[in-house]
Automatic annotation (TrEMBL):
InterPro entries: Put_HupE_UreJ. The chain crosses the membrane at residues 20-36, 43-65, 71-89, 101-120, 140-164, 171-188. It comes from the Bacteria. Pfam families: HupE_UreJ_2 (PF13795). The lineage of its organism: Bacteria, Pseudomonadati, Bacteroidota, Cytophagia, Cytophagales. Keywords: Membrane, Transmembrane, Transmembrane helix. This is HupE / UreJ protein. It comes from Cecembia lonarensis (strain CCUG 58316 / KCTC 22772 / LW9).
C-alpha cells in the first residue's frame, strides 16, 4: 500500500470512527437545515469545513501553532453547540444573496476542529521526511468521510420527509436539539473544567 493510500484511508477512518463522533455531530449540525436538493450548498459547506481544519491541521502538525489541548477539546463541542443552536433559532437557510451563517461556521469552526486533529496526525507522521503528501491524503480522506456522513444523513432525512411525511422544519429542530444536547454533555465531560 502506498503512502498516499495509507493516509487517505486513515483520514476516512478517522471521520467515520464512532468513538470520536464530535466531527460527525458538527457535520450533521451543519446539514440539518438542508434537504437533498440543496446538495450543492452542502458540498460547499463540507469543503469550507475541510479548508478550515486543513489549514490549522497543517500549521499545528508543523508545530507553527500550539494551543492548549484541553481548551481545544472544550471548544470543539462549543462549535457544535453554537451551530445546532443557530439551527434551532433560525431553522431555515436564508434565501438571500448574502453568505449564509453556516458557511462562516463551517470555515471558522473548521479552524478549531483542525487543531483537535493535529496531535493525532503528528503522532501518525512520526519522522516522515515530507509531510505534504500524507497531509494532503489525510485531508482528502477526511473530506470523503464527511461526504459519506452527509450522504447517509441526507438520504435518511429524505426518506423521513418523503415517505413518512416528517415536516422539514420539525426534522431540523429535532436533529439540532439532539445535537445541541449531546454537545452540551461533551462540554461538561472535557478536562477544561
Amino acid at each position: 500500500m502506498g503512502q498516499f493510500q495509507l493516509y487517505f484511508q486513515l483520514g476516512v477512518q478517522h471521520i467515520l470512527d464512532l468513538d470520536g463522533f464530535d466531527h460527525i455531530l458538527f457535520v450533521v449540525a451543519l446539514c440539518a437545515i438542508y434537504v437533498l436538493r440543496d446538495w450543492k450548498k452542502i458540498i460547499i459547506l463540507v469543503t469550507a469545513f475541510t479548508v478550515g481544519h486543513s489549514l490549522t491541521l497543517a500549521l499545528a502538525t508543523l508545530n507553527l501553532v500550539r494551543v492548549n489541548t484541553d481548551l481545544v477539546e472544550f471548544l470543539i463541542p462549543v462549535t457544535i453547540a453554537i451551530t445546532a443552536l443557530s439551527n434551532v433559532v433560525k431553522p431555515k437557510p436564508s434565501t438571500g444573496r448574502g453568505i449564509q451563517v453556516n458557511y462562516i461556521f463551517a470555515l471558522f469552526f473548521g479552524l478549531i476542529h483542525g487543531l483537535g486533529f493535529s496531535n493525532y496526525l503528528r503522532s501518525l507522521l512520526g519522522k516522515e521526511a515530507s509531510i505534504f503528501e500524507p497531509l494532503l491524503a489525510f485531508n482528502i480522506g477526511l473530506e470523503v468521510g464527511q461526504l459519506v456522513i452527509v450522504a447517509i444523513f441526507m438520504v435518511a432525512g429524505g426518506i423521513l420527509h418523503g415517505i413518512i411525511g416528517i415536516n422539514r422544519r420539525d426534522w431540523s429542530m429535532i436533529i439540532s436539539a439532539i445535537v445541541l444536547g449531546m454537545s452540551l454533555m461533551m462540554m461538561l465531560d472535557t478536562k477544561y473544567w
